[in-house]
């Protein structure tokens, strides 16, 4: 196998070190992947099609053999395997904490192998705040079961009942001080067994690792210039590739002159396949210059295919393909008052600071791709299809990239690299996108329209709730080759996967469209839009950000109508005790007082959601100040409360939620993709501004409600909805007017104030 | 050939004079700290110091740099012996994906070397050119304050070199 | 800033007998009032006042970095000391909350505060005197309905006798002519509206007219070009150095949007002006443009021909070969020869300024740049050193500053190359010294984002941050 970057493990070294233990390598679907992820289905990795053992916890259901997750070498070294990728969310550290805890091995001695179609279990995508639920749960149970198997083995060796033995620091110890290291206990196929449905999990009160803040393993390297990202990979003989992207979606290459580019120093190869053009050069700057010159030699036929941005809401509403009923619990109730509002949001980018990048190499007929994709297994299948090769001829290895927050250009750049590597005569090829390519060509988070109609009874309580949303699917991940951008531009182009409407518990565009509040009558419908005027896919939270923004700012408006305090009004309609607890804690920590009045031009806002209605609970209180004369919003301070179930790394959870709130504030205040009838025009940070340091709040505290002994709920996305909505409510509170269109730009705020 | 002094070491690099410093660091010298983010001087991921000033290496052709002292994040210390800025970012866990962080540290370093008593407002204003997308800003601010403390107290075990002094 | 060379006021004191002078200079106090309730003002009047305040650019002097709008405290450095702008929010103790409408109108008309003190002409009452009572009333209504902010402006830091406000009466006697704008019947109403705004509330001459030794605008030199906050304010008369002559349409577009394809992007203090003008009704910007265009006069045939030629000139690449790709992909020029300035330009500037990416987000072709063709290199030096920062949360052009990397010699080489290549004007002299002087930062020089407003709150030292 080829060298892989980090961690420094190859399949060979893993196998070599494990003695007899790994005679049968048990991973399911490592190469011949039977569990193809269904195109466009964001939740499919949470509901795997192939469930080997559905009763098993977490991802063990799909990959039940214990040694697919945990292996112990003859020298006692423990290697843990996960199919979930480090995206900057700190998952590596959290998973290692879980394994160390249940296995009773020192954290520092563990090795973690991250997604690699040649090595690790297939856990679909790293998405939907599922890493702890899926992989954390699997590793925790597997670790506990391995521990018990090892104790059992030691009992046999020592002739002592297992009850008298316990595991500690990578060994099994007996009452008389006898110890046998794990390495000495493993033999034969000891761990090549299926997991059991139940495990002897450690009790939270005996935890020494889980629930304790731990410094992340990746940070020291990242702050000292270590090799940390796929962008940092330098393989022997590596070439630099660049792709000339078309000027607009659907443009066709009609003129191509590569003579000037070919003559440039360092240029090794110019590639053209249909409307896909790329260049390979010895050095990166040479590749960039050659790409620019190559773009001069390219002529394109463009089509005015983009909608009128000024009329986007109308355009979207006019495109409805069919309706999906998300919740049908309408009852004949009659309120005394009804209130209605409609909201819009624009397309948004993921906006990774580091443009997407991948390295690929063809060796012995196998194309290996190092990629920061969220799903190495789906990419493996899609890239193989694009190359017209059997799936086992492609291997995808995850290497960290810049934060992605969903489906950005990662998979597309992996496909770019795979294509260019085919002509590189065995040399590795590194492709990084340019800034404008990332901004213009990553799949956007789709624009949306929402509408709520509510009825209140005489005491202001909500008795009827009618919610509509208009949206594309929020996921067009691979899928088939047609999901890969370059594949759509090849001479024999692959068509994007057919989109389907699917109503699922996790939700998609409809995620969080059902309020957690107890309303006597509820109806929620998704006016589903099949066509994608702009290519769209998953951004952190999918539809939840907009749906929560709508629900929570509308709740605020209703509280005002009812003459109630917004926090009290929410509690009044909330029955879920854990929900009530985060709402109360956020209010308390913020110093929320019923019917308090903010200083002039300041506003207080509150918002709450349980992500997907089945994951983490999050409530956010925010104070802002609005400069009336400019419409500019400054974040003053915020307090959040989070219940994410069992917590592996509290500091990691805080970091995620803090970041989510800041990011959501940037979305809510500033962001929107712009385009004319043909081209995307927001192509850099100048034309797509995001939050900078000057808009930062003075204080933002995240308070955790630990729930030891309960399930992991995942923390990565729970802050997006409440974060944006709390900012919105604070702005409305400050200006005494409501806005229904995102972003809450200066112009809109000024117009609302009438300043 | 261009002669460059980076983190106190002299290098002869066979790059065209118009090559931005970023690509010389990453491609010729195989250093990871400075990152490509936009190539336009809008995001700061590529920030390094030249004679103690924060500079976007993506728009700085190497022809400008003969005889100048270039410092990258690699010059602030190592994993074993982190400098005060690195120590502070580790202590405060001031990273999510971390892609922007080396640039953040270099810009902060350039401020604190000149003014270790910089106020919160001064730090914010100074950090304005650098973007973070993960929303780690609050921690970055805390880490910079912590780094200032470490620098003032002379703590931090690292090999951080004071730059801005030619030929040091 | 506008108080340069005020020291000569000392002379005035000697010239005028002190006793008589006091009598002449004396202004009575206008009685304090209880701050009026915001609701007592007509909403339409307040709205009109908002437009007028934007036309008057009031917020830019009366708001300090990290301070609140209109709360004053902005330092206005002069060679003799520092003047601080005052708080014009309706705060009763530190603002103008106790000012009656009459007191406000007197301040605008005569440059005297409510208590009867003469005001320094940094407050441009030499222009504001032309504002009508009706407009003053609307401005008053607008200001009195702002958020009151308790903020004491720091005391002015001026030596004796400049700190004695009575001496200002002498300055007024010499240079100040009070009274509202008089309609010029020879011109149409639009022209007159423009003249009223430009000469009055807009106080364009404060920056764009040269000043005499006593800090007053030179009579007969109106709009011949001046200076503001370390930036050259280019001539708005026939001597305008713009390579492509301005016309009313171009002026209107530039003033309302902050950029024009043939002229570039507003920055420095002008960015604040265009940001404000972006919020006022079209007719007012049209009127200003009409009047300024008439001050400039129609371009000579030669100037027009030269401008047309420039516009027809292809970029560095052949016409029609600008890369037809998304966004910012650029093909920089290759430097000819070994001229240091040419090499720097090719390496650091060309990738934006020759990319063919349209303004405002692409860099202007420098042969269209007034800065490169102007009489003084301050503006290009400022821009190259400190760049154009991003506006907060707004689309805006961004240019990185190069102060951290370009030393004085490299700056001089680059500027010389630019002047030689992109202009037919004589070379600039003493460039290294000028760069060093600006870099030292002794002179106040403010850097604004293109939206003008972003330089203020929470950003006390923005000018020191290079982009």
Q: What is the topology, as strand order, of the major beta sheet of chain A?
A: 9-10-7-17-14-15-16
Q: Calculate Rg of chain A over CA atoms.
A: 27 Å
Shape of chain A: globular
Structural class label of chain C: mainly alpha
> Tally of extended strands of chain C?
6
Average pLDDT, all residues of chain A: 92
Helix-strand topology string of chain C: HHHHEEHHHHHHEEHEEHHHHHHHH
CATH class of the largest domain in chain A: Alpha Beta
Second-tier CATH architecture of the largest domain in chain C: Orthogonal Bundle
Give the arrangement of secondary structure elements.
The complex is a heterotrimer of chains A (755), B (168) and C (467).
Chain A: H1 11-16, E1 70-72, E2 78-81, H2 91-103, E3 111-113, H3 131-158, E4 166-168, E5 171-173, E6 179-181, H4 182-185, H5 219-222, E7 239-244, E8 252-256, H6 259-262, E9 267-273, E10 276-281, H7 284-296, E11 298-301, H8 312-318, E12 322-329, E13 337-345, E14 357-363, E15 366-371, H9 376-387, E16 394-398, H10 410-421, E17 429-432, H11 435-441, E18 448-456, E19 462-471, E20 521-528, H12 544-561, H13 566-573, H14 577-590, E21 602-610, E22 617-627, E23 632-643, H15 650-670, E24 699-704, H16 720-735, H17 746-753
Parallel strand pairs in A: 2-3, 7-17, 15-16, 19-20, 23-24
Antiparallel strand pairs in A: 1-2, 4-5, 5-6, 7-10, 8-11, 9-10, 12-20, 13-18, 14-15, 14-17, 18-19, 21-22, 22-23
Helix pairs in contact in A: 2-3, 9-10, 12-16, 15-16
Chain B: E1 2-6, E2 9-13, H1 21-28, E3 47-50, E4 53-56, E5 69-71, H2 84-91, H3 101-114, H4 120-127, H5 137-152
Parallel strand pairs in B: 1-5
Antiparallel strand pairs in B: 1-2, 3-4, 3-5
Helix pairs in contact in B: 2-5, 3-5
Chain C: H1 9-15, H2 18-25, H3 43-56, H4 58-62, E1 75-78, E2 81-84, H5 101-110, H6 125-128, H7 133-144, H8 167-175, H9 189-199, H10 205-208, E3 226-228, E4 231-233, H11 248-257, E5 259-260, E6 264-265, H12 269-277, H13 282-296, H14 301-312, H15 340-353, H16 370-373, H17 378-386, H18 408-422, H19 431-440
Helix pairs in contact in C: 1-8, 3-7, 5-7, 9-13, 11-12, 11-13, 15-18, 17-19, 18-19
């Amino acid at each position: 196998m080829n060298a892989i970057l980090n961690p420094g493990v190859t399949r060979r070294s893993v196998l070599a070190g494990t003695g007899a233990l790994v005679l049968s390598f048990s991973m399911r679907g490592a190469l011949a992947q039977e569990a193809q992820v269904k195109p466009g289905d964001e939740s499919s990795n949470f509901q795997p099609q192939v469930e080997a053992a559905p009763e098993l916890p977490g991802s063990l259901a799909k990959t039940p053999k214990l040694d697919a997750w945990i292996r112990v070498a003859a020298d006692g070294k423990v290697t843990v395997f996960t199919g979930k990728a480090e995206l900057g969310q700190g998952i590596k550290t959290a998973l290692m904490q879980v394994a160390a805890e249940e296995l009773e091995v020192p954290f520092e001695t563990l090795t973690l192998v991250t997604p690699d179609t040649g090595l690790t279990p297939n856990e679909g995508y790293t998405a939907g705040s599922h890493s702890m639920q899926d992989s954390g749960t699997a590793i925790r149970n597997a670790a506990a079961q391995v521990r018990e198997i090892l104790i059992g083995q030691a009992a046999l060796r020592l002739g002592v009942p297992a009850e008298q033995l316990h595991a500690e620091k990578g060994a099994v110890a007996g009452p008389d001080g006898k110890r046998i290291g794990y390495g000495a206990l493993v033999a034969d196929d000891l761990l090549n067994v299926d997991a059991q449905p139940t495990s002897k999990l450690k009790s939270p009160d005996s935890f020494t690792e889980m629930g304790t803040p731990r410094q992340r393993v990746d940070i020291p390297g990242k702050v000292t210039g270590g090799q940390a990202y796929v962008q940092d990979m330098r393989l022997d003989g590596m070439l630099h590739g660049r792709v000339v992207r078309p000027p607009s979606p659907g443009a066709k290459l009609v003129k191509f002159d590569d003579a000037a580019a070919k003559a440039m120093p360092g240029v090794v190869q110019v590639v053209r396949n249909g409307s896909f053009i790329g260049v390979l050069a010895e050095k990166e700057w040479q590749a960039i210059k050659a790409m620019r010159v190559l773009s001069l030699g390219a002529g394109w036929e463009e089509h005015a295919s983009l909608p009128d941005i000024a009329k986007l809401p109308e355009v979207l509403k006019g495109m409805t393909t069919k309706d999906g009923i998300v919740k049908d619990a309408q009852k004949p109730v009659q309120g005394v008052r009804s209130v209605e509002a409609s909201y819009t949001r624009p397309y948004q980018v993921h906006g990774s600071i580091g443009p997407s990048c991948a390295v690929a190499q063809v060796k012995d007929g196998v194309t290996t791709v190092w990629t920061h994709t969220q799903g190495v297994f789906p990419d493996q299948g899609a890239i193989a299809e694009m190359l017209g090769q059997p799936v086992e001829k492609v291997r995808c290895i995850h290497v960290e990239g810049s934060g992605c927050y969903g489906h950005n250009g990662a998979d597309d750049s992996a496909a770019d690299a795979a294509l260019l590597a085919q002509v590189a005569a065995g040399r590795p090829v590194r492709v990084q996108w340019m800034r404008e390519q990332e901004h213009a060509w990553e799949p956007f988070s789709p624009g949306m329209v929402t509408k709520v109609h509510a009825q209140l009874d005489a005491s202001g309580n909500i008795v009827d709730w009618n919610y509509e949303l208009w949206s594309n699917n929020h996921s067009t991940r691979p899928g088939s080759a047609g999901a890969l951008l370059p594949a759509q531009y090849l001479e024999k182009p692959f068509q994007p996967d057919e989109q389907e409407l699917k109503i699922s518990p996790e939700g998609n565009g409809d995620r969080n469209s059902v309020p957690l509040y107890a309303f006597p009558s509820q109806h929620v419908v998704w006016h589903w839009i099949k066509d994608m005027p702009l290519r769209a896919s998953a951004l952190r939270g999918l539809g939840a950000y907009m749906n929560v923004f709508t629900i929570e700012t509308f709740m605020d408006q209703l509280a005002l109508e009812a003459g109630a305090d917004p926090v009290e009004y929410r509690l009044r309609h909330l029955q879920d005790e854990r929900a009530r607890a985060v709402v109360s804690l956020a209010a308390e920590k913020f110093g929320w007082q019923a019917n308090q009045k903010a200083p002039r031009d300041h506003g207080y806002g509150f918002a709450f959601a349980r992500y997907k209605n089945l994951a983490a609970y999050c409530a956010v209180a925010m104070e802002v100040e609005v400069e009336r004369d400019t419409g500019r919003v400054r974040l003053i301070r915020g307090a959040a409360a989070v219940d994410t179930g069992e917590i592996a790394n509290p500091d990691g959870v805080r970091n995620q939620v803090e970041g989510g709130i800041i990011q959501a504030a940037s979305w809510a205040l500033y962001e929107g993709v712009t385009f004319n009838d043909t081209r995307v025009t927001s192509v850099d940070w100048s034309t797509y501004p995001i939050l900078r340091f000057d808009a930062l709040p003075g204080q933002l505290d995240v308070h955790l409600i630990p729930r030891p002994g309960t399930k992991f709920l995942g923390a990565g996305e729970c802050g997006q909805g409440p974060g944006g909505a709390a900012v919105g409510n604070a702005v409305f509170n400050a200006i005494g007017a409501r806005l229904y269109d995102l972003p809450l730009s200066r112009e809109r705020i000024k117009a609302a104030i009438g300043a | 050939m261009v002669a460059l002094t980076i983190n106190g070491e002299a290098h002869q690099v066979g790059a065209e004079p118009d090559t931005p410093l970023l690509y010389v660091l990453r491609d010729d010298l195989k250093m990871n700290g400075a990152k490509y983010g936009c190539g336009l001087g809008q995001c700061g991921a590529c920030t390094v110091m030249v004679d103690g000033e924060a500079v976007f290496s993506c728009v700085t052709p190497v022809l400008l740099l003969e005889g100048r002292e270039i410092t990258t994040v690699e010059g602030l210390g190592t994993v074993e012996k982190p400098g005060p800025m690195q120590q502070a970012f580790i202590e405060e866990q001031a990273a999510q994906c971390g892609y922007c962080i080396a640039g953040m540290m270099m810009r902060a370093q350039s401020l604190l070397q000149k003014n270790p008593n910089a106020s919160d407002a001064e730090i914010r204003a100074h950090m304005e050119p650098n973007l973070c997308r993960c929303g780690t800003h609050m921690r970055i601010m805390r880490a910079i304050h912590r780094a200032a403390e470490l620098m003032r107290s002379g703590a931090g075990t690292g090999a951080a070199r004071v730059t801005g002094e030619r030929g040091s | 800033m506008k108080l340069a060379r005020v020291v000569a006021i000392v002379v005035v004191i000697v010239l005028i007998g002190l006793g008589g002078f006091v009598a002449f200079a004396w202004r009575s106090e206008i009685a304090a009032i209880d701050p009026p309730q915001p609701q007592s003002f007509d909403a339409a009047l307040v709205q009109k006042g908002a437009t007028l305040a934007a036309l008057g650019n009031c917020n830019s002097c009366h708001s300090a970095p990290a301070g609140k709008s209109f709360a004053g405290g902005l330092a206005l450095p002069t060679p003799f000391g520092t003047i601080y702008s005052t708080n014009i929010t309706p705060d009763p103790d530190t603002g103008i909350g106790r000012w009656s409408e009459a007191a406000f109108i007197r301040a605008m008309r005569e440059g005297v505060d409510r208590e009867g003190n003469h005001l320094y002409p940094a407050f441009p009452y030499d222009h504001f005197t032309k504002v009508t009572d009706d407009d003053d009333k609307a401005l008053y209504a607008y200001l009195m309905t702002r958020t009151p902010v308790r903020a004491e402006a720091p005391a002015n830091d001026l030596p004796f006798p400049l700190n004695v406000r009575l001496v200002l009466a002498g300055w007024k006697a010499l240079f100040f002519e009070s009274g509202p704008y008089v309609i010029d019947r020879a011109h149409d109403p639009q022209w007159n509206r423009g003249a009223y705004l430009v000469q009055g509330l807009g106080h364009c001459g404060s920056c764009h007219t040269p000043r005499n030794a006593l800090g007053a605008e030179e009579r007969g030199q109106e709009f011949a070009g001046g200076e503001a906050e370390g930036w050259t304010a280019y001539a708005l008369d026939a001597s305008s150095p713009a390579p492509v002559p301005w016309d009313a349409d171009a002026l209107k577009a530039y003033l309302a949007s902050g950029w024009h394809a043939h002229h570039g992007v507003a920055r420095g203090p002008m960015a604040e002006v265009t940001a404000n003008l972006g919020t006022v009704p079209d007719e007012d910007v049209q009127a200003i443009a009409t009047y300024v265009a008439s001050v400039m006069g129609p371009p000579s045939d030669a100037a027009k021909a030269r401008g047309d030629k420039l516009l027809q000139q292809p970029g560095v690449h052949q016409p029609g070969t600008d890369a037809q790709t998304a966004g910012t992909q650029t093909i920089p020029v290759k430097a000819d020869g070994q001229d240091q300035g040419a090499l720097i330009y090719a390496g650091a500037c060309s990738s934006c300024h020759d990319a063919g990416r349209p303004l405002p987000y692409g860099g202007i072709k420098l042969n269209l740049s007034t800065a490169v063709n102007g009489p003084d290199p301050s503006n290009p030096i400022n821009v190259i050193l400190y760049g154009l920062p991003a506006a907060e949360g707004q689309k805006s052009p961004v240019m990185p500053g190069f102060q951290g990397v370009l030393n004085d010699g490299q700056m001089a080489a680059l500027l010389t190359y630019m002047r030689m290549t992109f202009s037919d004007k004589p070379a600039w002299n003493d460039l290294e010294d000028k760069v060093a002087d600006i870099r030292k930062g002794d002179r106040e020089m403010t850097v604004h984002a293109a939206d003008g407003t972003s330089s203020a709150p929470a950003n006390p030292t923005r000018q020191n941050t290079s982009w």
